[in-house]
Design goal:
Length: 308
């Protein structure tokens, strides 16, 4: 695994001058991921925040082959490119080793692109799919997705007099992908560069499909000061809302276990989208959210062979 100095000296695959918001953590994650890649790489990215801010016509921030995909077909496109590459290499028309990465936000991965992602994973393409999970459709106005947390206030699931944010708990996409019996899968967070770097290197080294789900806080969508994004990502992990683990060789393994599991409210209270949960009349919703986090954490511990 590369150290921080080695990563900093590698080629910058995404040039400065993009149009990301101040404090955009998805961009931090993208930079970390692309610096973890050595050699030739082809990238596809579904329509969404990271595509829009890096490829506003006629400009691009990408210094490598980049394919802009529709919302729903980033995985399908890259699986097709990977297949064409294998054919050309077999015929001797290509002699270089190339890696393939597809990116999508939670809207383009959990929801609209789930079908093409499932197909690519099931067919066994030698590619890495990365979901940058900022927990809503941020690019089009902060609408709820199936990754949006329970009780979060969004434009299409608002907190008001009748409802108190999203009614449903988020989909466990990482486990859905693991059920495809992929070569490698993991959850990561932008605050832990070493863990993310190691997981990207592992994902690109396996023979077959790989998947990484990266939590990437969004300042305007989550409503927090633009310089607090990395701390928000860390709190999500330390409260066990977003566990860091991997699936490798048909086994799950925690890659980080908090010494002290923090109450979920420590993560919620610093985000404007959850401020309604701090009212006394919503105490029951806060307790319900904590109960679900605890249930999922205990379930994961058991699957990883860990104790509480």
């Amino acid at each position: 695994m590369a150290n921080i100095k080695q990563l900093a000296q590698r080629e910058q695959r995404i040039a400065p001058g993009h149009r990301a918001c101040a404090g955009c953590v998805p961009m931090v994650a993208f930079q970390q991921i692309m610096r973890s890649v050595e050699g030739h790489v082809v990238v596809g990215c579904a329509t969404g925040c990271m595509e829009v801010i890096t490829t506003i016509y006629p400009y691009t921030s990408w210094n490598i082959p980049f394919i802009h995909n529709a919302f729903e077909n980033s995985a399908a496109t890259i699986s097709g490119v990977e297949t064409a590459y294998r054919v050309l290499k077999k015929k001797g028309k290509v002699n270089k080793d190339v890696k393939f990465i597809a990116f999508g936000g939670d809207g383009g991965t959990y929801d609209i692109g789930l079908q093409s992602l499932s197909g690519a994973m099931e067919r066994g393409h030698n590619m890495l799919y990365v979901c940058y999970d900022n927990e809503a459709y941020m690019n089009t106005g902060i609408q709820r997705s199936s990754a949006t947390p329970f009780a979060a206030d969004t434009k299409t699931a608002p907190a008001g007099k009748v409802e108190q944010g999203k009614r449903q708990f988020p989909k466990n996409l990482t486990e859905i992908i693991i059920a495809h019996n992929v070569a490698y899968a993991a959850q990561a967070s932008a605050h832990n560069w070493r863990d993310l770097n190691k997981k990207v290197e592992k994902a690109l080294a396996v023979d077959g499909p790989a998947f990484i789900n990266v939590l990437a806080p969004c300042p305007p969508g989550w409503r927090f000061p633009s310089d607090d994004g990395i701390e928000l990502a860390k709190l999500a992990v330390d409260t066990c809302f977003w566990p860091l683990y991997e699936f490798e060789n048909h086994q799950r393994k925690l890659t980080y276990k908090p010494k002290e599991k923090l109450p979920l409210v420590e993560w919620l209270k610093v985000q404007g989208r959850f401020r309604h949960l701090l009212r006394e009349d919503n105490k029951g919703l806060l307790e319900l959210a904590q109960k679900e986090v605890d249930r999922r954490w205990e379930e994961l511990l058991a699957m990883c062979g860990e104790s509480s």
